Amino acid sequence: MKGKASNTDSTIPARPISQLPQQSISSTPTQAEVPKAECTEKGTATEGPLKPLTDPACQADDDSEIVKWDGESDPELPLNWPSSKKWQNVVMVSALTFVTPFASSMFAPAINQVMAEMGTSNRDIGSFGVSIYLLGYAFGPLVLAPCSELYGRLIVYHICALLFILCNVACALSISMPMLIIVRFLTGLVGAAPLTIGPGTVTDCFRQEERGRAMAVWTMPVLLGPCLGPAIGAYVSRSLGWRWNFWLLIIVSGFKSGAVSLFCLVFQRETHPPTLLKRKAARLRISTGNPNIRHVDHTTISRSQLVTTSIIRPIKMLFLSPVIFGLSLLTAVAYGTLYLFFTTVTDVFTSRYGIVTNVGLTYLGCGCGQFAGLLILGLVSDAIVKRAAKGGEMKPEYRLPPTILGGSMIPIGLLIYGWTAEYRVFWFVPVIGTFFIGFGMITVFTPVGTYLIDAFPMYAASATAANTVLRSVGGALLPLAGPRMYSSLGQGWGNTLLAGVSLLMMGMIFMSLKYGERLRTHPKYQMKL
């Protein structure tokens, strides 16, 4: 609780945290985000648009009752935490993130077993049992992002981790294909929490010029998990049956959640700045007995209005921002291609090469490519941005050059994989193709994710949620077309078609590089959020 705010700004006398440099207060509406309104003299809203309590018309008491940061260098602000504290938070979030993408594809090699036991021969239904998980990813962010902004990030992480375990129990006990599909959807819904909130944690802790490496560390389990999942899932389902894929997930999730949660109680801290101020204000109300103390971003808007605004905002950003839609479409096609690969690679190497016992190992080519891409991005991402800025303004578009390399590698990998599998070239050669696919995926996803939080810092979680929604829909729906496409075109021409679409999507990269800044700032594309 600090001294009086400046009166130089007639609308916002106390400088909100959302205006600090590079700081992202993304999904909680603050004074800049909600409609303006009339207030009573005690700061409660009457009919009409709402004003924040930091507006002079809403202040019943003096500004000494408003809790805010001690300037931009306040040590309690996550941006100013010691590097060790920042990194321990990011690493723990990465650990929480790994298991949900791992679960998304671990089930893929067991499709034939499940179809046989459930009495269905429809291959599309079997593939849908895998991809429905990603539809949960599409809807989860719309609920989880506003919850994390209203109640803080940590509580959402931990509640969703518990629900994730319970949903996997239901998967393991499923007695019909419809039941399995429904609970797989719910598993993806709650499993979306670390994928949705993780970029927000990175944004809370790291300034723009530092985020590239942190985003690379966070992204690693997001893409590495789906590659390791089938490798382990193939062995487990062959040795113990398909249900043990889910029992193993329950064991791993329970141990991970318990160990990480215990570690979090000791080391991890809440990073969401408005939540930290809210808690500080609550402590001061108790210690001083003054019920009028409130944090600087407090508004009179109701919780239901906050949630509604937070749910609608990502959808508006997705369809009204050309930059967000274009890059989200790029990642949707890439993600769909990745999961199409996951749902078909077992059949390819089993039917064409006779690999049965160790078929899961063929997924590791993609994982190795992602790991290589991650190492390169971690080393050069922030350096590229600083060099492009030349000591001046660090524009978000400076994050995108690595996507040119990544976008080129995906079609190259698809062509190598498709045509060598078509002609049954030595099995290791198509695996090399999957290496290029994995390398391309991570060198597209990571810069795009970092670009979105740099380009839309005030609405970073909403921009990320918009991208996640379209990306996950692509990941869920494209694999459904895979079996029929390969049946009609074969591996060679089928993957050539995918390579052509991926090549066309590179146009989104060049559009964002050349026109991104203009599209972000042009009045025509400014949205009322």
UniProtKB/TrEMBL annotation:
Transmembrane spans: 90-108, 128-147, 154-175, 181-202, 214-234, 246-267, 318-341, 361-380, 400-419, 425-446, 458-481, 493-513
Pfam family, any one: MFS_1
Region Disordered: start-end pairs: 1-58
Location within or outside the cell: Membrane
Any one GO cellular component localisation term in the record: membrane
Protein topology in the membrane: Multi-pass membrane protein
Primary location recorded for the protein, binned into one broad class: membrane
Domain Major facilitator superfamily (MFS) profile: 89-519
Gene Ontology terms for molecular function: transmembrane transporter activity
Compositional bias segments (type: Low complexity): 16-31
This protein's UniProt keywords: Membrane, Transmembrane, Transmembrane helix
Keyword Membrane among UniProt keywords: yes
Polar residues bias spans: 1-11
Official protein name in the record: MFS multidrug transporter
Source organism: Penicillium brasilianum
